[in-house]
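Q: Got a minute? One more chain.
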Amino acid sequence: MSDWRSRALRPAKRALRRSQDRYPQSPPELSMDPRAAEEGSEAPPAEESVVTSAIYRDGHRVDGPPNLAETCQRLRDHPGTMAWIGLYRPTEGQLLTVAEEFGLHELAVEDAIVAHQRPKLERYGDTLFVVLRAARYLDEAEEVDFGEVHVFVGANFVLTVRHGQAPDLTAVRRRMENDPDLLRRGPEAVLYAVLDSVVDGYAPVVGGLQNDIDEIETEVFRGDPRVSRRIYELSREVIEFQRATRPLLDILQGLSAGFEKYGTNEELRRYLGDVADHATTASERVNEFRQILADILALNATLVSQAQNEEVKNLTVASYTQNEEIKKISAWAAILFAPTLIGTVYGMNFVHMPELQWVFGYPFALFLMLVVCSTLFVIFKRRDWL
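A: Always. Here it is, folded:
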């Protein structure tokens, strides 16, 4: 088994940069809807959506026919050959033309036209139809970009329909052509190579999501108010990633179940087992991420609640302190009001007012003020107003 089929999950950014540097990227993705042609306009020829078309014999590339009709004719004229045709975002008319040439089942073709399918494995007679969800991690945007690839596997042909930039099937083709021993095992070997490419593409995504989760944990404890939104957005990406990885395990189990019935080569069985191990690892990590994000969200809610309680506590303490000061001010105001009231009464200059001619009137007024103020002071002091 070659080295590229036994890679373990590697850190995200290093793996993604190496992949981008080594293999050129596909044309930019415009939309997931493959039916780009306007109604009433003439459908473009199917060859416009063909990225690469090649015929292989005994694990080696022997020809690259210019059109689909000639490719089919070569397959009929030369038994023992295999065709591998790659389509990128074909229109409905283009895909129907290809389906007619290779006799593809209409239900499988309909799924390939509509796209946005759940990963699945279906068998229509001698043709195997597989839907895979690929993913790649975008470093600059710190988000996951999802693609979709449909694989038709026949007795002597492989047809790949890609609706996104991932996976890089050009790199898969190069790797297979550099490994004739594997390529000569037929269309099933190509299918497993595509599966391996999709699963290996999950490694940078797993690493990137791990980095994002680590950053979020730091932001949560720093009290960043924007972290809740980021947790929500990352949770949606993890859920979408889980939708891509979880059904893949069923696909691999379905292929394993048909080993004996369809006489799958022993080497391909080991190859599939290696892919299944990587897929299981990725699926388990995604499940962990979802649980971790749920815990982080709950922790963030707790921390926010604690911060709010602390603010309420501080406001309560401030309010209590303010009330204490108001009580002191009110108590002293009451004490000072008493002599003012007495002085006001004794300050009225009426002729017939009692005690105006009394010798002890002034000392009595002062004594009365002192008694009233002292009494009020004692009362307020006992009530802790002073």
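A: The longest strand covers residues 127-138.
Q: Perfect, thanks.
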